[in-house]
Amino acid sequence: MNTTNEKQFKTVNTTDIRFRLGSIISELERTKSPVLIISRSRPKAWLYPFEKGRRREDPFALWYKKILPKYAKISANQLIDLVRKDRDNR
Question: Rounded to two decimals, what is the model's pTM?
Answer without folding.
Answer: 0.51
